[in-house]
Amino acid sequence: MLFQRSSANLSGLKTLFCLLLLSVAATQAQTAPAAPAQDTSSSSDVQQAQVVSKPKDLYTRDVTLLGFGQDSGKTNGNSIRNGTTSSGGGMLIYRQSPRWWFGYEATYGYTKFTDTYYDDTYRVKHTNNELTLAYLMKSPDYRGYRVFGTLGAGIMSMDPVQYGGIVVLYGKPVTQTVPMFLYTIGVEKRITQRISARVQYRDDVYKDPDFKQPTLDTTRLRSSKVPGVGISYRF
């Protein structure tokens, strides 16, 4: 009889202990702070804003292949009238602009045309190779468009390939290298994140070539108008 009572007491204690554990667990579950819900909409909005704004300033360098036309007009000095034929050519341009207001542009250009002297009585056909370095400034991007301008200097090498006329020279025309100055203004349109199109006007200023012949020296400066169109790859 005593044994039965002890067993009953033990089973009652076990039941009471289990009920206590259950009540404690339930209380902790009710008082525990709920985990904060993640605001997926705000994070997705931030990611979308980053995706939209990132391509505009992601690429600060570009390489451009540009075709141009050239017209240098006529000059008159030292009793010598100098003229040129119009020509076409190409430029390879490398640009870097860490800021829209600060950058640089390095250019190699090539063309071929004819200089005429003494009212076209003497002609020198020559190739032009130029290397220039210029300060570059671009406007902020506006709907894919940017206006840009450059101001710089370089050298131009003119190499005669054909010459002749009635003027008496002290010797044959030879290659002449002269300093040059330039400015450019243009507009570029972003087509994709990496590809853009460019239209520009450039003015080259340098001394009339004389090919180291005193009888061809006008002592004048020349202004060459150089409009061009090109395609740029940004990286």
Short description:
The protein has 235 residues and is of the alpha+beta class.
Overview of the structural elements:
The protein is 21% helix and 54% strand. Strand 6 and strand 7 form a beta hairpin. The chain has an eight-stranded antiparallel barrel with strand order 1-4-5-6-7-8-9-10. The chain is elongated, with a radius of gyration of 39 Å. The chain has two domains: 1-32; 59-234, Porin (Beta Barrel). The relative contact order is 0.16. The protein has 235 residues and is an alpha+beta fold. Mean pLDDT is 84; it is low at 1-10 and 49-55. It has two helices and ten strands.
Termini, distance in Å? Answer: 95 Å
Category from helices, strands and their pairing = alpha+beta
CATH architecture level-2 label of the largest domain = Beta Barrel
Give the SSE string. HHEEEEEEEEEE
Query: Order of strands across the biggest sheet?
Result: 1-4-5-6-7-8-9-10
Strand content: over 45%
Query: Which term fits the overall shape?
Result: elongated
* Poorly predicted sequence stretches spanning 5 or more consecutive residues: 1-10, 49-55
Major beta sheet summary: 8 strands, antiparallel, barrel
User: Within the CATH hierarchy, at the fold level, what is the topology of the largest domain?
Assistant: Porin
Kindly state the mean pLDDT as a whole number? 84
CATH class of the largest domain: Mainly Beta
Number of domains: 2
